[in-house]
Structures are given as structure tokens and as C-alpha cells.
């Protein structure tokens, strides 16, 4: 009941104070975007491109750590790899973590 009129008028106004209080949240989101979200999207795009460009003869490393050679591209989702001489396995393309060496394009006559 003993509030002065000047104090009562400033308590209701929230224009500039609202913007100043929201500024840290906007800054944190911008920092998170540039340090976490954007690089992750770049890595995902590069991985998808790497998987799409797999072909016969490539030496790959699986996400389980196995080093194998691509023998056959089965379809868009699977490849057939040779783990050792005579040991072949089918592998889901998304499980390829790295391509160690790229092969030359296969000629149609071979």
C-alpha cells in the first residue's frame, strides 16, 4: 500500500526487459546449432554419400571393426563382402563406417 507511483509504473512494463532476458536463450541456441547440430548434419550427409558410392572392389571397415572387401552390391540396402578368402557375408550398407580404399570402376566386359 505504500508503493510509489513511479515504482508501480515500471513494474508493469516488460518491453526491453523481456528482450534482454530472452537474449541468453537465443545465444545458447545459436551456439548449440553451430557447434553441435550443423557439424552432425554434415557428417551424416558425407556418410550417406560414401554409402551410396560403394562399389565392387572397395575395402571397407564395418561399424563392428571388421575389414572386408566388397564383392557384390546386392541392392540399395545390402552389399556382399568377403571377410577372408572364401568367407563371404551380406552386410547392411549403413553398417559401413569407413571406406579404406576405392577401387577402379568395373568394366562391363569383365
Describe this structure in words.
Belongs to the YajC family. One of its GO terms (biological process) is protein transport. With 110 residues, this protein is of the alpha+beta class. It has a domain at 54-101: SH3 type barrels. Helices cover 42% and strands 27% of the residues. The chain has a 5-stranded antiparallel beta sheet with strand order 4-3-2-1-5. Strand 2 and strand 3 form a beta hairpin. It is rod-shaped.
Summarize the structure.
By secondary structure, the protein is α+β, with helices and mostly antiparallel strands. 42% of the residues lie in helices and 27% in strands. It is a single-pass membrane protein.
Q: Mind describing the biggest β-sheet?
A: 5 strands, antiparallel
**What is the spatial order of strands in the main beta sheet?**
4-3-2-1-5
Task: Determine the structural class based on helices, strands and strand pairing.
Answer: alpha+beta
Q: So what's the overall shape?
A: rod-shaped
**What is the number of helical segments per DSSP (H or I, 4+ residues)?**
2
Poorly predicted segments: none
Q: Tell me the CATH architecture of the domain at 54-101.
A: Roll
Strand content: 25-35%
Average pLDDT across residues? 85
The top-level CATH class of the domain at 54-101 is Mainly Beta
What is the ordering of alpha helices and beta strands?
Answer: HHEEEEE
| Radius of gyration from the alpha-carbon trace, in angstroms | 28 Å
Share of residues in helices: 40-55%
For the termini, the CA-CA separation is 95 Å
**Number of separate strands:** 5
Subcellular location: Cell membrane
Protein name: Sec translocon accessory complex subunit YajC
Subunit structure: Part of the SecDF-YidC-YajC translocase complex. The SecDF-YidC-YajC translocase forms a supercomplex with SecYEG, called the holo-translocon (HTL).
Pfam families: YajC
Amino acid at each position: 500500500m505504500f508503493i510509489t507511483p513511479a515504482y508501480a509504473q515500471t513494474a508493469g512494463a516488460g518491453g526491453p526487459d523481456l528482450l534482454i532476458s530472452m537474449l541468453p536463450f537465443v545465444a545458447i541456441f545459436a551456439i548449440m546449432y553451430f557447434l553441435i547440430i550443423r557439424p552432425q548434419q554434415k557428417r551424416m550427409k558425407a556418410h550417406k554419400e560414401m554409402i551410396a558410392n560403394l562399389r565392387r572392389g572397395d575395402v571397407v571397415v564395418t561399424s563392428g571393426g571388421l575389414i572386408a572387401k566388397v564383392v557384390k552390391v546386392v541392392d540399395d540396402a545390402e552389399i556382399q563382402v568377403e571377410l577372408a578368402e572364401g568367407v563371404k557375408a551380406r552386410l547392411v550398407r549403413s553398417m559401413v563406417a569407413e571406406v579404406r580404399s576405392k577401387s577402379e570402376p568395373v568394366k562391363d566386359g569383365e
